[in-house]
Amino acid sequence: LDVSMDTWNFYTCLVSLWLHRFYIYSAVGFGISIWIIIQFTTAKPKKKVTEHGNPAASEGIEDKLVNGRATLQAKEVYVAGVKIFYGSQTGTAKKFAKGLAEAVISLNLPVEVISMGDYDPDDRLSEETTSRNICVFLVATYTDGQPTESAAWFCKWLEEAANDFRFGKTYLKGLRYAVFGLGNSVYVDHYNAVGRNIDRWLWMLSASRIMTRAEGDCNVAQSKHGSIEADFEAWKARFLSRLQALCRGEKKPCSRKCKKGKCKSGKQSKESSDREHGASEYENTEAEELFETSSEEEADAEVAGGPNSVIDVEDLGNIMSHMKKAKSSIETVMLNIVYQLVWFVYQLLQAKINCLIIFCLFSGYKLIGSHSGVKLCRWTKSMLRGRGGCYKHTFYGIESHRCMEATPSLACANKCVFCWRHHTNPVGTEWRWKMDQPEMILQEAIENHQNMIKQFKGVSGVKADRFEEAMAAKHCALSLVGEPIMYPEINRFVKLLHQYSISSFLVTNAQFPDEIRNLEPVTQLYVSVDASTKESLKRIDRPLFKDFWQRFLDSLKALSEKQQRTVYRLTLVKAWNVDELKAYADLISLGKPDFIEVKGVTYCGESSASSLTMANVPWHEEVVRFVQELADLIPDYEIACEHEHSNCLLIAHKKFKINGEWCTWINYERFQELVREHERSGGSKTFTAADYTARTPRWALFGSKERGFDPLDVRYQRKNKARDISGC
């Protein structure tokens, strides 16, 4: 009986939530109570203040006594300038940007107005973490909550950076920003979605808000000030006031509740200012994220200098103050949170969101049917922009910008310690889900892939010829996640790929030997050999099968029977599997692969599913040394290629060294001809790996000065980033 994966995962999650509901409510209530008590009982240290009207303080100039004479010290620069980014479709955001620029110029500050379509965030945004500029984002929300055409790439990049462990949670720490969104509340489901998203993504990368996000409304019936222009003018006044405070070195704006000529919140002591000024002084808090939309009316009153002035909600004290004014109570807040939890469970029931879909939403995967997925590889994006291809480009000649990364099975039979999906995908030892047809999977995979490629149209740096080529996928890496070979119709799926003239690179975890034997010819078949002994394989791969070791050995034997190209893929994890050279050599003799890829493990960030740290990531020099020692133990093989940027090397069988030249690349057109002849003959006409080889260029060879980087492209080093040792 086929059971839908959606139903299976849904009921598992639902039952778990229901059985533990009282613990959840109690934990939430207790945590909030402790949090509130701490905030009320912890007193903030008093800071040294200065008097209003002190010219030396207001101008940032200090008197110092040097050799008995008073000298003037140059004032500290807290704000170097303002950069105004706009994403506009009808011109409103652009008009607002120019108006804001004129106002900033009147404050004698440098200002730059930038269209998001002309700006490359990958190259330049990280520079703002140390520039002491204030970045302002004026962004409109377009059809169905999407960004405007000019802002599409900026938003796409920012979203991926916020959810990509390779960037890190502090990638934009030090960048100071403010967001004003332009939208229409008539479209309630998508109202100001772009402004809210940009605000959230910047915050996730540790950028610092200088003030709460504001939202302008084209719907005059709902606009707080009668029109979007009036909304902007009100926000602009608050922004300019905040900007002036920042220029004076104030961490928080003056509340205008000063007594006896003393400012309670404006100036800090010289010692405190020296320590906290600049990009690093603005801290984000969870409270700011939770309560980020404060009352516009209160903000307007602040600009006017009213008695109940509030500029921003930056700490819990201010939050509780607002709540008291609104006659709210702590009990109301707790009930609200419980209500939100219940509402989420209700939405879970209504929408039937299961664990699998949540996995896809948070990882950027495009879900296909009930068990398949596709995702755009970062190397695809890199090669689109002429910044180099992946190691498969170097080793086998694929065109990375034309490669589609997909899987017909999100489920896996292992829970490897270095899995970069952090085990958010389902696991299992047999197929037990309702099966989608391969024709539907491939069609939707290609459509989703093309839609993701289309987002790069007009993006700065993207090469026009490569963009056009990328719309037609030429390669498919069946290695995205899970165990593709578990899919019952994997042979039909592979044949469909070949009918579309798409080469097939299939990866399996060596737990399904029968499926390997029954597999139809693929362009290149990989087996992951993550360890060389039973004990280390159990510790690293954490397989679900009880007879995992016998399955592993049988899979390698099945691989040796294949006539097309075969590859062992070794992932080195320091202190786990780098001391088993002789055992690896024995496994190579068993499976007789054509190639052996050896790669340093990729660190995927902290996870409760794995104990790996950066200490387990080998340096490239360590990987090279391991490969050299391994090659000495297998006389029929030599080191052929290297891709330093991926921390990866290729060992090849000597039969691919023809007349003294390595031929590790693939003649893809010849492969398609051979596989068509094989299918027309009903499988009687066979072919081997030697029938579709191509010469390997010199720059790809081990020992070349390029170290595997294609000289036709330009190597890009991200600014303000530590040396990358994580591989691809």
UniProtKB/TrEMBL annotation:
Basic and acidic residues biased stretches: 268-280
Q: Where is the Radical SAM core domain?
A: 396-640
A Pfam family recorded for this sequence: Radical_SAM
Q: Which co-factors does it depend on? A: [4Fe-4S] cluster
Pathway in which the depicted protein is active: tRNA modification; wybutosine-tRNA(Phe) biosynthesis
Q: Which PROSITE patterns match?
A: FLAVODOXIN_LIKE, RADICAL_SAM
Compositional bias, Acidic residues, is annotated for 283-301
| Keyword terms of this UniProt record | 4Fe-4S, Iron, Iron-sulfur, Lyase, Membrane, Metal-binding, Nucleotide-binding, S-adenosyl-L-methionine, Transmembrane, Transmembrane helix, tRNA processing
| Keyword presence, Iron | yes
Write out the transmembrane intervals.
20-38
What protein name applies here?
S-adenosyl-L-methionine-dependent tRNA 4-demethylwyosine synthase TYW1
Enzyme class, broadest EC rank: lyase
The family annotation for this protein states: Belongs to the TYW1 family.
State the function annotated in the UniProt record.
Probable component of the wybutosine biosynthesis pathway. Wybutosine is a hyper modified guanosine with a tricyclic base found at the 3'-position adjacent to the anticodon of eukaryotic phenylalanine tRNA. Catalyzes the condensation of N-methylguanine with 2 carbon atoms from pyruvate to form the tricyclic 4-demethylwyosine, an intermediate in wybutosine biosynthesis.
